[in-house]
Design goal:
By secondary structure, this protein is of the alpha+beta class. The protein contains six helices and eight strands. It binds zinc ion (ZN).
């Protein structure tokens, strides 16, 4: 059995008992990405035969006293799991995150960024993913209480609710190369 203390992280032939770090992408049985977990959890899932390793991190091996284990980078559940996807909360912070803190009218990231109602509230515009965009103060003031068409301004992209995949990417912080084919961002 893999006990926390008995797992040894081996990198390039050098044994170190350092804590396992790194993140592992979990796919459903259908290969749909579900979430990201730490290596320890991934190894336990594989050990319990609840998941199989789909991609490994190059040159890394995990050892217990009795077994050696490839270091997982992507694992796949052996049984299909119904996943209630966490809804991404509509908030100022998440709008700015979705738009990479980049003004959706002029493209600047330098100026202070605000949130703009594409269709102004005074004209029936709602607080939705589709109607809120990041906008710099200048563009926000320039646009005023008008629609982009009336103001002669163009959105650089169509605002949408962020996908589950983009949530995974944001929560993981970085994307492992081995994850790309499964996140459809090749
Ligand atoms: Zn702007």
């Amino acid at each position: 059995m893999f006990e926390k203390r008995s797992i040894v992280f081996e990198d390039a032939g050098c044994h170190t008992a350092s804590r396992l770090s790194g993140r592992v992408l979990i796919l459903n049985q259908s290969y749909e990405p579900i979430t990201v977990c730490n290596v320890q959890k991934a190894v336990i899932l594989v050990y319990l035969e609840k998941a199989e390793i789909v991609a490994t991190a190059d040159g890394k091996v995990i050892r217990s006293p009795s077994t050696a284990f490839p270091f997982p980078s992507v694992i796949r559940l052996t049984q299909y799991k119904r996943v209630p996807y966490r809804r991404i909360i509509l908030s100022r912070k998440n709008i700015l995150r979705r738009d990479n803190h980049c003004c959706q009218y002029c493209g600047t990231t330098a100026a202070p960024i605000t949130v703009d109602h594409v269709i102004p509230r005074s004209q029936g515009g709602t607080d939705t993913w589709e109607n809120l965009v990041a906008a710099c103060i200048r563009c926000n003031n320039l646009k005023g209480d008008r629609t982009p068409e009336k103001a002669g301004m163009r959105l650089r992209s169509i605002p949408r609710r962020p996908s589950h995949v983009s949530f995974i990417i944001h929560s993981a912080g970085t994307v492992d190369e081995a994850w790309r084919p499964y996140l459809f961002i090749e």
